[in-house]
């Protein structure tokens, strides 16, 4: 009976999709550094508690795995860029641009892992970049892009997408060598470490609005630890292609929440760009699934 796995998958997508509008609300009363610090203060502690409470003796040792530590630092940079970007751009647009990391992965994997990209990788990348161009440059013009707050926010979010491509690629290096939940817990802790240093350098007052604390706790539990755990659980039975649809569902839901609860609206050119981005991601997933199926058949 796979119903529970599908339910876990859809729930993970639903929870992840709420992060974008919730972050936007949190940034109304908090700085990006403050809010991202709070998110991973709670997520880091939850991750550490999970490792300590694990009955397996080697669980806590994952904290000192070099790749887990590197993943945490990469994750911290990605989230810092996203939060800084979301302070200046729409939550719905951030959801679109952040998820472009999927099309960056194939190119990054070539330089980091030596994986040869296929033609569809370049095609998806070109389509996604075209969509990003319509979404970011379209409403302002190239010259105004760097001179507007919203334009700079879009570029920061795109930077986060590029950083997370490295996160995915380096995650492949340790996939299967350690339990996924251990890796997640370790990454949460090592994401918190550099963000705590950043917070101490920028703010260090440790005086947080009650709303920021509540939102930080929500993001830690319902947009970090819980959805990732549900996603890993679903992968036990759900195929790679089906699980990848979660990505598209997350984007669509994030846009819906942002439209309904934040009153955000896209300009026509941004709608066109967003359509290209989603199409690029969908086509990449389909071709990846066909390629994996063909490889399995050959083997």
What report would you give on this structure?
This protein is globular. 79% of the residues lie in helices and 0% in strands. Helix 2 runs antiparallel to helix 9 and helix 6 runs antiparallel to helix 12. The chain contains twelve helices and no strands. With 299 residues, it is an all-alpha fold. The mean pLDDT is 87. The protein has one domain.
Characterize this entry briefly.
With 299 residues, the protein is mostly helical.
How would the blueprint of this fold be written?
Layout: H1 3-26, H2 32-53, H3 66-86, H4 91-98, H5 101-112, H6 119-136, H7 142-145, H8 149-174, H9 180-202, H10 210-234, H11 240-262, H12 268-298
User: How many independent structural domains?
Assistant: 1
Count of beta strands: 0
Low-confidence stretches: none
Distance from N terminus to C terminus (CA atoms, Å) equals 29 Å
> Total number of helical segments?
12
User: Which structural class fits the helix and strand makeup?
Assistant: mainly alpha
Helix content: over 70%
Oligomer: single chain
Percent of residues in beta strands: under 5%
Shape from CA axes? globular
Q: Topology as H/E string? A: HHHHHHHHHHHH
How would you sum up the major sheet? none
| Average pLDDT rating | 87
The value of Rg in angstroms is 19 Å
């Amino acid at each position: 009976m796979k119903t529970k796995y599908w339910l876990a998958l859809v729930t993970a997508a639903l929870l992840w999709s709420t992060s974008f509008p919730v972050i936007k609300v949190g940034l109304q009363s908090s700085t990006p550094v403050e809010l991202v610090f709070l998110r991973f203060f709670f997520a880091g502690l939850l991750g550490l508690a999970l490792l300590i409470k694990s009955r397996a003796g080697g669980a806590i040792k994952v904290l000192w795995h070099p790749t887990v530590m590197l993943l945490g630092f990469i994750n911290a940079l990605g989230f810092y860029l996203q939060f800084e970007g979301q302070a200046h751009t729409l939550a719905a647009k951030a959801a679109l641009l952040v998820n472009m990391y999927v099309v960056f992965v194939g190119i990054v994997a070539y330089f980091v892992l030596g994986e040869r990209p296929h033609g569809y990788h370049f095609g998806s990348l070109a389509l996604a970049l075209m969509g990003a161009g319509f979404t970011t440059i379209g409403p302002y013009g190239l010259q105004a892009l760097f001179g507007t707050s919203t334009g700079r926010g879009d570029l920061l979010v795109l930077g986060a997408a590029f950083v997370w491509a490295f996160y995915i690629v380096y995650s492949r290096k340790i996939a299967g060598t350690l339990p996924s939940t251990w890796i997640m817990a370790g990454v949460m802790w090592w994401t918190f470490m550099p963000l705590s240093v950043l917070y101490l350098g920028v703010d260090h007052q440790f005086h947080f609005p009650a709303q920021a604390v509540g939102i930080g706790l929500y993001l830690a539990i319902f947009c970090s630890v819980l959805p990732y755990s549900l996603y890993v659980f679903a992968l036990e039975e759900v195929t790679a292609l089906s699980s990848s649809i979660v990505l598209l569902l997350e984007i669509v839901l994030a846009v819906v929440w942002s439209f309904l609860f934040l009153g955000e609206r896209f300009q026509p050119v941004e709608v066109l760009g967003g359509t290209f981005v989603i199409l690029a991601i969908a086509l990449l997933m389909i071709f990846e699934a066909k390629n994996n199926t063909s490889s399995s058949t050959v083997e």
